[in-house]
Amino acid sequence: MSVALASQLREGTKKSHTMAENTGFVSCFLKGVVDKMSYRRLVANLYVLYSAMEEEIGRLKDHPVVGPIAFDALNRKAVLEQDMAFYFGSDWRQQLQPTPGAVEYVNRVRQVARETPELLVGHHYTRYIGDLSGGQILKNIAQKAMNLGEHDGLRFYEFDAIDDEKAFKVNYRATLDHLPIDQATADRIVEEANHAFHLNMVMFQELEGNLIAAIGKVLFGFLTRRQRSGSTEVVAA
C-alpha cells in the first residue's frame, strides 16, 4: 500500500518549518547577519549529525522503506569534512566539540535507526531536501556576510552530483509516495519530521548566544565611535 507521503510531509511540517525559520539564529542568518564563530560551530554540529545519518542510512540500504531514499548524491559528510578543515584547520578532528543539542539529535537518529528505521525518512526529508532547496540562497548569504571565496567553507551547500535540482526533487517526492507504508506509518513519519525540526531548533538556539554577543560587540563599537565623534564635535564647537 502506498500513500501520498510527500504532500503529507510538506503540509504536516509547515508550522515547524516556520518556527525554525523564526529562531534568532536563522532569522539573523537570512538577513545577512552571520557570526563566523557561531557558523563554524554549526558546521561542526552538522558534521556529527550527517556522519551519523549517513552511517545509519548506509547500513539500512536494503531496508524496504529506508533503502529507496538512500540517494548517494545527497550525502554531505565528505563536503562537510572540507568545510571543517577550512574553519578549524588540518587537526579539526581533535577540535570537534558538538553542542549538547547536536548530541541529542545524533542520539535520536541512532535510536530511530535501531528501533523504528522507517522513521528515518522524516529526518532525511527534513534535512536533505531542506538543504537542497535553500542551499544556493544560504550559500550566497554566508559568502557575502563572512566575505568568503566562492567555495571556501561553503561546500555543504554544493550538490555537485545533482545536475537538475528540480528534476531530482520531483523524483524524490515520487519515491516518497511509492514507499511501501500504510497511513499509520505515514503519520508517524510526519510526526518524526516535526520532531526533527524541534531538534534543529534546539541546535539553533544554542548558537544564538555567540551570535547575540557578536552583534552586541558590533553595536557597542558603533555607539562608542558615535560618542567619540560627538565629543569631538562638542570640543570643536
Overview of the molecule:
- It is a single chain.
- With 237 residues, the chain is mainly alpha-helical.
- It has one domain: Heme oxygenase-like (Heme Oxygenase, Chain A), CATH 1.20.910.
- Helix content is 73%, strand content 0%.
- It is built from ten helices and no strands.
- The chain has helices spanning 5-12, 14-21, 24-30, 36-59, 77-88, 92-95, 100-115, 120-145, 165-177, 183-236.
- The chain is globular, with a radius of gyration of 21 Å.
- It starts with a helix and ends with a helix.
Question: Could you give a short description of this structure?
Answer:
The protein has 237 residues and is mostly helical.
Note the main sheet: none
SSE order:
HHHHHHHHHH
Based on CA atoms alone, the radius of gyration comes out at 21 Å
The CATH C-level class name:
Mainly Alpha
- Give the overall form: globular
| CATH architecture designation | Up-down Bundle
Number of helical segments? 10
What is the averaged pLDDT score? 88
Q: Termini distance?
A: 83 Å
Number of domains: 1
Q: CATH homologous superfamily name?
A: Heme oxygenase-like
Number of strands: 0
Structural class: mainly alpha
Measured as a percent range, the helix fraction is over 70%
Strand content: under 5%
CATH topology: Heme Oxygenase, Chain A
Uncertain residue segments: 212-226, 231-237
Oligomer: single chain
